[in-house]
Design goal:
This protein has 124 residues and is mainly beta. It has no helices and 11 strands. The strands form 2 sheets. Strands 2, 4, 5, 6, 9, 10 and 11 form a 7-stranded mixed beta sheet that branches. Strands 1-3-8-7 form a 4-stranded antiparallel beta sheet, with no helix packed on it. The chain is globular, with a radius of gyration of 13 Å. It starts with a strand and ends with a strand.
């Protein structure tokens, strides 16, 4: 499995960015895909995720709820993260991830595959 993240960049506070993660390989094993982020000097934290089944059920961290939207394109096995009303505290390296089993979603140990990060910088 390979996960390829893209879409990061520099944006002013209040602006928007859209991240994309393209998956290849044994994607039919996926149960859920999601995004984590890691700010300088901080631990990697959960951002959002979406189920890969028919429900497409989504989940968001409290810090991004109402501003970020996660979606998927099953035909292209791509997951998107639309980020609006960005704040300087959203500055981080964003990582996409995939998991193949049910269970917890908030810890990095609960995810099976990781993409390389893409840097998002929000200036004040």
């Amino acid at each position: 499995v390979q996960l390829q993240a893209s879409g990061g960049g520099l944006v002013q506070a209040g602006g928007s960015l859209r991240l994309s993660c393209a998956a290849s390989g044994r994607t039919f094993d996926f149960y859920r895909m999601g995004w984590f982020r890691q700010a300088p000097g901080k631990e990697r934290e959960y951002v959002a995720s979406i189920s890969w089944g028919a429900s497409g059920r989504t989940s968001y961290a409290d810090a991004v709820g109402g501003r970020f939207t996660i979606s998927r394109d099953n035909s292209q096995t791509t997951v998107l993260l639309q980020m609006n009303s960005l704040k300087p505290e959203d500055t981080a390296v964003y990582y996409c991830a995939a998991k193949t089993q049910t269970g917890g979603i908030y810890e990095i140990s609960q995810w099976d595959y990781w993409g390389q990060g893409t840097l998002v910088t929000v200036s004040s």
